[in-house]
Amino acid sequence: MDDEEYARELFRILTRPPEPDLEPGRLGDDWIDRSDGFRTDVQVVSLEVVPGPYGAQVDVRFELDVPAGYDVPAQGHVLMPLDEEWRAASGFVEPEDYAPRIAGRVSRAAREHVVAHTGPPRRGFDVPDREEQHALLLRVLGRHGEVEHVASDCYVVRTDGDDDMVVLLTPEQ
């Protein structure tokens, strides 16, 4: 399945209404967790395949049901990897396998979107400089195995087991 077909199927899954008899707090047949407002307070409105530094990505646009009195833009978006080789290596060959992961990331992105647009920053908190952030990242990743920096925004964590962890970062991250 090519990237465009895959994205169309993801969109179909992510915009499908939940099962009418689904009890709150339960996962549906699609394994998407809706307890955090996905498909009620947060709606996926489009998916677009876009180029990324390591292959195709999907730009997932969402819309929020913003309560009255909040000065928060109703739209936001999040980029997720989509490259076919990456999907195969990550176990997301079928869109049904990746849809719950995207739904969860959209819900987190929606919360981050609201937080970014409400209230002043925390007092007494200074963001560390880039070098300190990089050192922190290496310390955290190093807890899981040997860290190899393979590109400006790509790290591979070599673990004792058979599975290595690949970490891709955007400049904002």
List the helices and strands and how they pair.
Blueprint: H1 3-15, E1 42-52, E2 55-64, E3 75-81, H2 84-90, H3 95-116, H4 130-142, E4 146-151, E5 154-158, E6 165-168
Antiparallel strand pairs: 1-2, 2-3, 4-5, 5-6
Helix pairs in contact: 1-3
Summarize the structure.
This protein is of the alpha+beta class and 173 residues long.
Note down, in words, how this protein is organized.
This protein has 173 residues and is α+β, with helices and mostly antiparallel strands. The protein folds into two domains: 3-116, no CATH class; 130-168, no CATH class. Helices cover 32% and strands 25% of the residues. It contains four helices and six strands; from the N terminus they run H-E-E-E-H-H-H-E-E-E. The chain has helices spanning 3-15, 84-90, 95-116, 130-142; strands at 42-52, 55-64, 75-81, 146-151, 154-158, 165-168. The strands form two sheets. It has a three-stranded antiparallel sheet with strand order 1-2-3. Strand 4 and strand 5 (154-158) form a beta hairpin. Helix 1 (3-15) crosses helix 3. The radius of gyration is 18 Å and the shape is globular. It starts with a helix and ends in a 5-residue tail after the last strand. The mean pLDDT is 84.
Helix content bin: 25-40%
What is the CA–CA distance across the termini? Answer: 30 Å
The count of DSSP E runs of length 2 or more, i.e. the number of strands, is 6
**Biggest beta sheet summary:** 3 strands, antiparallel
Taken together, the total number of domains comes to: 2
Give the mean pLDDT: 84
Radius of gyration: 18 Å
Shape: globular
Unreliable spans:
none
Strand order of the largest sheet: 1-2-3
Strand content: 15-25%
Secondary-structure-based class equals: alpha+beta
Number of helices: 4
Task: Provide the succession of SSEs.
Answer: HEEEHHHEEE
